[in-house]
Amino acid sequence: MDTAVAKAAVLTEALPYIRDFHGSAVLVKLGGSVMESDANLDSLMDDIAFMRVVGMKVVIVHGGGKAISKALKESGHEPKFVEGLRVTDEATMEVVRHTLNNVVNPDIVRRLQKRGANARPIHGNWVFAARKIETPDRGYVGEVVSADTRAVCEMLDAGIIPVVTPIGTGVDDSHLYNVNADFAAAALAKALKVRKFALVSDVPGILKDPSDPGTLFSTLHLGDLSTLREEGVISGGMLPKVERTDAWRIRCFWKYSRVKAWERR
After folding, report:
1. 188: CATH
2. 141-156 core/surface letters (b: 16 or more CB in 10 A; e: else)
């Protein structure tokens, strides 16, 4: 009885939010350790399936860094990173493509379909046009120059949840490019003009002291980002989450959630 009352209270509190966002496009970027735990990922899939049931148009863009690193090691390649982005030669690009398109993406789609959500895969090279990042040279690592939203919009209009991989097609050479999932998600969020843009990560956000969650920056001015990068406060995998934000001027909601937060829900 207490459980039923608690659930009813949550739904009552959420009702205005559900009504407000009915029919709105929401993009969710999945990454971090949340994708490495079945319990956490299943909890998140429950949330996303619920969002679709109450009428939100949900798009997912996912990473797969840990799965890719594991696959590389199993194939005899040592993963390398420069400024938070994976160095990607020809052999690494094939591992990236196979792991994202044939392992990580189908797993997310299956989990959503198991919950009654009509989810379908979209390989990112059908959506993202990319150009090689020249400096520093990381091989086949690209930045998104445009996003073709036609297939995504058709799926959304049909009540389907598109699950998109962060791979781009080179505008100069038609080669496949490894695109950071944060970059890809932000570019697609901008192109779709989504109502909300949520990044699910295993860290709460940008911390002044990475070892102290109490030093979380609740808000930041765009002008502060360069200073924080120079000071080393923003580094590693957090760099792609803030890079080019000023240039894109994306009007979206950035949500950083601890994995444990999903466990509590």
Report:
1. 3.40.1160.10
2. bbbbeebebeebbebb
